[in-house]
Write a structure and sequence with these properties.
- By secondary structure, this protein is an alpha+beta fold.
- The protein has a single domain, classed as Molybdopterin biosynthesis MoaE subunit (Aldehyde Oxidoreductase, domain 3, Alpha-Beta Complex).
- The protein has helices spanning 16-24, 61-78, 109-126; strands spanning 9-11, 34-41, 46-47, 50-59, 83-94, 98-106, 129-135, 140-142.
- Strands 1, 2, 3, 4, 5, 6, 7 and 8 form an eight-stranded mixed β-sheet that branches.
- A hairpin with a 2-residue loop joins strand 3 and strand 4.
- Helix 2 (61-78) runs antiparallel to helix 3 (109-126).
- It is globular.
- It starts with 8 loop residues before the first strand and ends with a strand.
């Protein structure tokens, strides 16, 4: 049976109440002993004297969702996780807002710390999501991941 690849994308910023609700939904899963969360937030970087006011995210969605799926599968293979959720913004996200939300859950805490770092590093390295940094003067440049 073929697994349906889910989309991880949400339009615009990831709202704090969405994050809170996602966490609350796990209270019924009583085999979970630990969660770890990564929240990627847009920074007001200064680049060549200009301040970033937001980032506009675009992606090759089908390719990106396939890559997110592969990372998810590899993580479940490597770590004893109960669940994992990944959400990434598309469109414009203002400074201070959340653009990436990753939640991993497991019976034990040591596993979630290691798994979360593995997932976030893989996302940054492998997923074709592109950010256009928009400056306060409305000029822009493509973001380079570091």
């Amino acid at each position: 049976m073929e697994t349906k690849i889910q989309s991880v994308f949400v339009e615009g910023a990831i709202a704090p109440d969405f994050i809170a609700t996602s966490i609350a939904k796990h209270q019924s899963k009583t085999q979970i002993g630990a969660h770890d969360i990564f929240l990627g937030q847009v920074r007001a970087d200064e680049i060549e004297g200009k301040i970033v006011s937001g980032i506009e995210y675009t992606a090759y969605e089908s390719m990106a969702n396939q890559k997110f799926h592969e990372i998810r599968e590899a993580t479940f293979e490597k770590f004893d996780l109960t669940s994992m959720h990944i959400y990434h913004s598309l469109g414009t996200v203002a400074v201070g807002e959340i653009c990436l939300f990753v939640l991993v859950s497991s019976p034990h805490r040591a596993v979630v710390f290691e798994a979360l770092q593995f997932v976030v590093e893989a996302i940054k390295k492998e997923v074709p999501v592109f950010g256009k940094e928009i400056f306060e003067d409305n000029s822009y440049q493509w973001k380079v991941n570091t």
